Sequence to fold (288 residues):
Amino acid sequence: MGSRHGADSRREFEEFAHTRGTALFRTALLLCGVWHLAEDLTQSALARIYSSWGRVRRADSPEAYARSVLVRTYLSHQRLRRSGERPAIGELPEQEATTEDHSLRITLLAALALLPPRDRAVLGLRYWEDRSAEETAAELGLSVGAVRVRSLRALNRLRAQLGEQLAGLGG
Amino acid sequence: MTDPGEDEGMDGSDRDGQDLREALGRAVGGAAPDLAALTAGAAAEGGAIRRRRRIATAAAVGALAAGGVLLLPHVHPSVAPATTAAAQPTRPAAGSTAAGSTAAGTVPLTGRAAVES
Fold:
């Protein structure tokens, strides 16, 4: 009985991980800018989710919970490391990406890497995950005003670093 | 009344936001990790977290239970009385001193007085 429940639980988790894993990984890649670190972050976040799977599957939105765990894992990792690891250009695989998109990724990730971790998280949640300022504030434990200020500041810094490239990046 | 400068700034950041949204989509939209490896690794790591949590909980419950037995000996009759008695503060045992052979309210005689009486 117990082992059957465990097997069911694991199967459910694996389904969830296969459905949401890629999106989580892409968010992690935007946050940390390094492919192998993004894989580590995604795996750590999924591991935490699996360790509390009984609670997560009953949550209103397991996806939102997973994203929140990922962002917290990233911020906690950044606090521990206290170092500014930069994207290692040679380590970015060119999976399913054209040369143009690959160079775009490098340019963008390098610019994002210069931002403070929390600002990167704000940009990732707002412009990649399409979260509102209120949702972003709730996930990061910030006020809505702080999210707006960080967002504006980070966008200005990106614009200063990338100049006209930012407009061109959108294609 | 709206500040035109603020309007311009907001429009600019909205445009930047839209540019960034599209750029992010193109930059990482095609990134695909090895999901099978990630999932297997996460399940193994998550299982280890569960085991550690279970062990920690069991240890905490055990410590609480042990503490409870020492503090409340009557709750657990299987514990030897000698064990709990040893933990109690010392006090004179009934019948073990001269007080046991004297009448209530009298002081036992010692030394010469005891010999002469």
Chain B touches chain A at residues 9, 13, 15-35, 38-39, 41-47, 49-50, 53 (CB under 8 Å). Helices of chain B lie at 4-28, 35-71, 81-87, 111-116. Chain B has a mean pLDDT of 72. DSSP finds four helices and no strands in chain B.
